[in-house]
Design goal:
homodimer, alpha/beta, six-stranded parallel sheet, 15 helices, oxidoreductase (chains A, B), ADH_Fe/GldA (chains A, B), BDH-like (chains A, B), ADH_Fe_C (chains A, B), Alcohol dehydrogenase YqhD (Iron-dependent ADH family) (chains A, B)
Chain lengths: 388, 388
């Protein structure tokens, strides 16, 4: 186990009867809010009214940035910064999922800087001060509600890049499982895939002595395997929504990879796909992950993948290689049964772009993807082809 | 899953090469430190020199409160408060395990109040302001390094009572697994028992829909089951010390019982034993837990205990009652093989005090212990007798 620091101090306010605390929490930090949200679903399902009602009740002024898109774009951050600066806001309230919160993080980090926000994505060490952010989460997926990460897309440069800064960590997150009842099936499923991917990116490593963290990861994966299918049938199942929502937070907030040094593999590969073709992130991850594991499967890694199969999918096979193969198959089938389109072709990726995307994936990772198994351009290309 | 708030913002600085950050962390909060420690083992194993060296390096003044005993006593808090006030300290650095940190928490909470510290234990809502505390942990057991709880003994009144206040939560905790290399076998084992007990107190509940939390608990218990026996044979095994140490923090910091409403059962029963006879807390917990589970085992609870047996001890039995019985047996044997004296008689408890202690245990819990199964005085007496 490597040395590490764990310091994630977002206050989580979880449950169905908590929103009346919103004004009180905001007032600890500010009194004029930039309210960020997406395409307007929160107006249909009543969440917008709930929140603006609370703000009005507590006499908190707000201005709005709406229309933040999936795979949020740097253009929206430019627009948000303009509104925030013109109105001298002192707090950002992000109401939505990963896209809205990630975009809010960029506005937060760029607010006090005199540079284009894309420069902040490229070099987040510029951030020395940030606007405080609070979150009302409406979809369980990215874990952004309790982590310092943000992923932003630049369609002009065809780049989808992440940045991190402890200064943009949300100060609080309200997590009401009922607010996820109306998430469409496709995005519920993609969220489950995203959560599982974060967990597996943290989990797959070679002999780092982090047994405790890996046992937690296995428990988190089992939670997704139990409740994912339930949500498909019964999207208003509170227990299922609550378990998936709480699991999503812990998949990526630093606990599961505390003491580990493995870099992520599947996310860098997926980011190219959605930067080029704007596909749903979780779907891309689910398509790639089983193919990535197959590509990694060798004598050195078969025990790790075999244990994954036994501990997560209850595979009984004692032979590591056979167990590993069965586990990968079960993972594929799990995603397929959830209704994920399990090939790149089905989600509109064009075959003649695979090589270019593979080369860019490793270029953005600094020449190679150093994860569970080091991947070069050719490896990524093979994984894309196997996923096509 | 019930509504809850999770807000545990202790900064964890974990590993073997982190202590050079100590001065920097302290200076965020103060410049004159009350250094609290126990019976002097930190002088033998070099930890005292490490720490005072860091304080001197960074020009931080300190005064000392030494000799804090296991099952720390309110008298030591009185002494510490006198030293702290006379020297106008602005920070408390607790170097030790649960006893030292818990005592430091009482000094912290009582510092600004004009009442005897026992009054603070009896009513911690009095605390409105507290001295900040930092921790250098030297034993993995109580989880006090990242929680708001403290347990204090009053030998005059024969009471061992806990209090909680978010204001006494440590602001940072340095956790170096090597600092636990010299913990004697008896206390290493008692620590593992304590960690497992916290986890099981959180775990055993009826149908609360907290599957995710319970899966994490099972992973934490498996970590103890894997590394407890390794530490017995090889106390300087870094991986084992690190896993146990990190697990100890998460057994009780609020994650495993987030969304749960079950009260603890075994701790209130054990607190009477160590208030009367000053026995080792973890040992008392290990003796009582299997007998408590046997006492709870009925038609309503056999599935929960059966799942525990299957998921934690890999019991293959499909019948719940049989599985539950086998799981309880395996838990008993696990403690016994670790070298825990598995009867109250062996640790010096007197049989003729059982009834009095049982009555007081429920009295301190408000007339009954409302946990996995509600326990009245007669229940506690039966569990004590079965443990004798």
């Amino acid at each position: 186990m490597k040395d590490f620091v764990f310091n994630v101090d977002t206050k989580i306010i979880f449950g169905e009867n908590q929103l009346s605390e919103l004004g009180k929490e905001i007032k600890k930090y500010g009194k004029k809010v930039l309210l960020c949200y997406g395409g307007g679903s929160i107006k249909k399902n009543g969440i917008y009214d709930d929140i603006t009602g609370e703000l009005k009740k507590d006499g908190i002024e707000y201005v709005e940035l709406s229309g933040i898109e999936p795979n949020p774009r740097v253009d929206s951050a430019r627009e948000g910064l303009k509104i925030a600066r013109e109105n001298k806001v002192d707090f950002i309230l992000a109401v939505g999922g990963g896209s809205v919160v990630d975009l809010a993080k960029l506005i937060s980090g760029a607010y006090y800087l005199d540079v284009d926000p894309w420069q902040v994505v490229l070099d987040s060490s510029k951030i020395e001060k940030a606007l405080p952010i609070g979150v009302v989460l409406t979809i369980a997926a990215t874990g952004t509600e309790m982590d310092p990460f943000s992923v932003i897309t630049n369609l002009e440069t065809k780049e989808k890049l992440s940045f991190a800064s402890d200064l943009v960590l949300p100060v609080f997150s309200f997590m009401n499982p009922k607010y996820t009842f109306t998430v469409p099936e496709k995005h519920t499923v993609a969220g489950v895939c995203d959560i599982m991917s974060h967990t597996m990116e943290n989990y797959f490593s070679l002999g780092d002595g982090c047994y405790f963290q890996n046992k937690l990861s296995e428990g988190l994966l089992k939670t997704c395997i139990k409740y994912g299918p339930i949500l498909k049938k019964d999207p208003k199942n509170y227990e299922a929504r609550a378990n998936i929502m709480w699991a999503s937070t812990w998949a990526i907030n630093g606990l599961l990879d505390s003491g580990k040094s493995t870099s992520w593999s599947v996310h860098p590969m997926e980011h190219e796909l959605s930067a080029f073709f704007d596909i749903t992130h979780g779907t891309g991850l689910a398509i790639l992950t089983p193919r990535w594991l197959e590509h990694c499967l060798d004598e050195e890694r078969q025990e790790t993948i075999g244990n994954f199969a036994r501990n997560v999918f209850d595979v009984k096979e004692e032979d590591d290689l056979k167990a590993a193969k069965e586990g990968i198959k079960k993972l594929y089938e799990f995603f397929e049964n959830l209704g994920v389109p399990m090939s790149l072709r089905q989600v509109g990726i064009e075959e003649d772009k695979l090589k270019e995307m593979a080369d860019l994936a490793v270029e953005h990772a600094g020449g190679k993807i150093k994860g569970f198994k080091t991947l070069y351009g050719e490896d990524v290309y093979q994984i894309y082809k196997a996923s096509f």
